[in-house]
Write a structure and sequence with these properties.
By secondary structure, the protein is mainly beta. It has two domains: 79 residues, Pantoate--beta-alanine Ligase, Chain: A,domain 2 (2-Layer Sandwich); 81 residues, no CATH class. It is built from one helix and twelve strands; from the N terminus they run αββββββββββββ. The N terminus is likely disordered.
């Protein structure tokens, strides 16, 4: 099943809509689909009096065989210019296998961060995943890292920190 089709279906299958003068809107709906399952979705948005705003949406579709796909996304912008967004998608197969992927990004006066990841579960129960993250502070210091997991071999992590001049430095550890 196509993840884009699920998102479009979510937007088109709206059966209820709420809006008010406070800058909020919400829509949601669900109905049977041609694959013998259900397609459902929801979306909402809000804006504040000082310029902040946010929106989110999500959808899922199932079939008669026990498969499911879905996705969600959200974004926010603060009144002082900070921004963040996230998105994720999943697929669950009747045999127990499935995938999930997603990511987020944020930026503001203190810097920016972005991360993406994915995970796979095979029908035999084996699992693997990968997450990659990068962050840069307003001073120019940066971190780039990657974490991999495999149920056979375990976790492997690598990361590099640099100062504002681009020199590799020891990554600080949280207290």
């Amino acid at each position: 099943m196509n993840k884009i089709a699920v998102t479009l279906a979510m937007l088109l299958l709206v059966h209820s809509l709420d809006a008010d003068a406070g800058g909020r809107v919400r829509a949601a709906g669900a109905r049977p689909n041609a694959q013998g399952g259900v397609s459902a979705g929801s979306a909402a948005a809000v804006s504040g009096p000082n310029g902040g705003r946010a929106a989110r949406a999500g959808g899922v579709a199932t079939d008669a065989e026990g498969n499911a796909v879905g996705g969600s996304a959200a974004a926010v912008q603060t009144a002082n210019g900070g921004q963040a967004a996230r998105a994720a998608a999943f697929q669950r197969n009747a045999d127990g296998s499935g995938t999930r992927s997603g990511g987020f990004a944020a930026s503001g006066t203190q810097g920016n961060v972005a991360s993406t990841g994915s995970a796979t579960r095979n029908a035999d129960g084996s699992v693997s995943g990968l997450r990659q993250t990068s962050a840069t502070s307003s001073s120019g210091a940066a971190y780039n890292g990657s974490t991999e997991y495999d149920s056979e071999t375990g976790v492997n992590h690598s990361g590099t920190c640099t100062d504002a001049a681009g020199n590799v430095v020891a990554c600080p550890r949280p207290n």
